[in-house]
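Appendix B. Raw example, untouched.
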Amino acid sequence: MRRLYNLKGNFYKRRFKEIYKLLFTADLDTISDHSTWYKTNPDYVDKNRPLWIIAESSILNKRIWIYQDFGTLGIDTARLDLPVNSIAYSESHTFAKFKNQNELVNYLEKLLEPCLENNIEQVVEDNEEEL
């Protein structure tokens, strides 16, 4: 899998490693990472909002925002099949806040479970081919 190659580098072995591991192993359509945790000279906003990832999954029919905002970790979701400017889209938003990264990873794993099930078999097959 193309995204699993990213996990071999040292860059993703720092902060938020488990979150990236789940995202890179899940069968997601798009992942847009706007995080700033890696910057060496962050400004005020970068310091207080170090994590900001947007993922989309047609399997789940969800757009998922994963973020850290002024020390609060959270995951927001909305339905992917609705027009963005509709009332139904706004009403489909769900919000979840977490005290620590472990809680967020556990919630994210449950959320992405259908995407992970399809991909675990692929990862195992790829690892067997490398041997």
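End of appendix B.
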